[in-house]
Amino acid sequence: MKPSTKDQTKGKLHEMKGQVKEQAGNVTRNVSMEQQGRTEKVTGKVQKDAGKAEKKLQK
């Protein structure tokens, strides 16, 4: 698997994991968990986008 594809996959995984954390924090009213989820979601988006950009540069 190419590094760009790995970055996209890992980014999507972090994004989904962050979304779950954010929702769990929202349901349990745990502000800290909600913030961690948002942060992880944004980190995942950045990693996924970096993988897409790297893939375009490889062409």
UniProtKB/TrEMBL annotation:
Bilayer-crossing regions: none
Region (Disordered): 1-59
Coiled-coil intervals, chain numbering: none
Superkingdom of origin: Bacteria
Compositionally biased region (Basic and acidic residues): 1-20, 37-59
InterPro entries: CsbD, YjbJ_sf
Domain CsbD-like: start-end pairs: 7-58
Biased amino acid composition, Polar residues: 25-36
Family under the similarity heading: Belongs to the UPF0337 (CsbD) family.
Protein name, per record: CsbD family protein
